[in-house]
C-alpha cells in the first residue's frame, strides 16, 4: 500500500501520477487503465488544489493507493473547503464551441474513468475522496 | 513540457512535447496566446511527442480554438494525437471540436 503526503501544489502532480502508476503497474493493470488512473488522480488532485485549497498556501494533500481484492482504491484527504459534487453542473458535451464550458470537466472525467467516485466531508477530519477502479 | 513554434507561410506549427497538466498548462496557453497576439489564427498543434494531457490542457485548446474561429479568421487543428490522449479528448466530447491529421505536412498543407 502506498501512502504519501504531498504539498498541495500543481508541481507535485507529476509525483502523484507516478505513485498511482507504480501501484497500478505492480497490480497488473493494463497501460490503458494506468493512463486512466493517472488522469483521474490528476483531475482529482488538481480540483482539490484549485478549489478546496483556493488561496491557501502550505496546504497538504494526503493520498493512499491500495489494492483491495481486484480493485484499486485511491483516497485523497484534504482539510480545505468542503465540496458538494451534486452542485457541479454536468458539462454539456454537445454544446457548440462558443457555448462549451470547461468547468466540471475534471469531475466528469473522474466519473467516466473510474468505476466509483465518492466524497465525504467531515468538519473534524476534512474532506475524503475515494475513487475505485476494477482490474479488467 | 517543451514547446517549439515554427512559422509557415499560411500557419504556425506548435509542437508540444512531454506532459501538459495544471502545472505546465499555463505555459502551453501562453504559447498559443502569443501566436494569436501576433495575428496568427491558423494553428497546427503537433502532439506526436506528447505523453500526457489533462483537462487543463484541453481548456487551453478550447480557449484558443474559440479565439481562432472568431470572425472566420482561422482554426486550430491537431496532428498525431496519441491514442490515450485521443481517448481522453473523446470522453470529454472534444474530438468534434478539432480537425485531426495524421502527419504535420498534411496538416500544414490544409491551410
Walk me through the structure.
Chain A is of the alpha+beta class and 136 residues long. Chain A has helices at 13-26, 31-52, 105-113, and strands spanning 2-7, 60-68, 71-78, 116-122, 126-134. The two termini of chain A are 20 Å apart. The mean pLDDT of chain A is 94. By secondary structure, chain B is α/β, with parallel strands linked by helices. Chain B has helices spanning 25-37, 55-69, 83-91, 104-109, and strands at residues 2-7, 12-20, 42-46, 50-53, 75-79, 100-101. In chain B, helix 1 runs parallel beside helix 2. Chain B is globular. The interface between A and B is medium-sized, with 27 and 21 residues.
- Catalogue the unreliable spans of chain A: none
- The secondary structure category of chain A is alpha+beta
Q: Please give the order of strands in the largest beta sheet of chain A.
A: 1-2-3-5-4
Task: Please estimate the helix content of chain B.
Answer: 25-40%
Gross morphology of chain A is: globular
Q: Largest interface, and how many residues on either side?
A: A-B, 27 and 21 residues
Please state the average pLDDT score of chain A: 94
* N-to-C CA distance of chain B: 27 Å
The assembly state of the depicted protein chains is: heterodimer
Total of helices of chain A: 3
Characterize the largest beta sheet of chain B: strand count, sense, and whether it forms a barrel: 6 strands, mixed
**Which range best describes the helical content of chain A: under 10%, 10-25%, 25-40%, 40-55%, 55-70% or over 70%?**
25-40%
H/E element order of chain A: EHHEEHEE
Mean pLDDT score of chain B: 97
Principal-axis shape of chain B equals globular
Kindly estimate the percentage of residues of chain B that lie in beta strands according to DSSP: 25-35%
Amino acid at each position: 500500500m502506498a501512502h504519501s503526503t504531498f504539498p498541495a501544489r500543481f508541481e507535485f502532480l507529476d509525483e502523484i501520477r507516478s505513485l498511482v502508476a507504480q501501484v497500478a503497474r505492480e497490480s497488473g493493470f493494463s497501460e490503458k487503465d494506468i493512463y486512466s488512473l493517472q488522469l483521474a488522480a490528476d483531475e482529482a488532485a488538481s480540483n482539490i488544489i484549485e478549489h478546496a485549497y483556493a488561496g491557501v498556501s502550505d496546504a497538504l494533500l494526503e493520498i493512499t493507493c491500495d489494492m483491495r481484492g481486484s480493485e484499486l482504491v485511491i483516497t485523497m484527504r484534504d482539510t480545505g473547503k468542503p465540496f458538494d459534487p451534486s452542485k457541479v453542473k454536468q458539462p454539456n458535451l454537445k454544446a457548440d464551441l462558443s457555448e462549451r464550458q470547461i468547468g466540471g470537466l475534471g469531475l466528469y472525467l473522474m466519473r467516466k474513468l473510474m468505476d466509483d467516485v465518492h466524497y465525504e466531508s467531515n468538519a473534524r477530519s476534512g474532506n475524503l475522496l475515494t475513487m475505485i477502479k476494477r482490474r479488467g | 513540457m517543451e514547446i517549439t513554434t515554427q512559422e509557415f507561410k499560411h500557419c504556425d506549427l506548435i509542437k508540444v512535447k512531454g506532459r501538459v497538466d495544471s502545472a505546465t498548462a499555463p505555459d502551453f496557453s501562453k504559447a498559443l496566446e502569443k501566436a494569436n497576439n501576433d495575428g496568427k489564427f491558423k494553428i497546427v498543434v503537433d502532439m506526436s511527442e506528447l505523453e500526457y494531457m489533462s483537462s487543463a490542457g484541453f481548456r487551453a485548446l478550447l480557449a484558443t480554438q474559440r479565439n481562432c474561429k472568431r470572425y472566420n479568421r482561422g482554426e486550430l487543428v491537431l496532428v498525431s494525437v496519441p491514442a490515450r490522449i485521443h481517448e481522453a479528448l473523446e470522453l470529454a466530447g472534444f474530438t468534434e471540436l478539432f480537425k485531426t491529421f495524421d502527419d504535420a505536412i498534411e496538416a500544414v498543407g490544409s491551410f
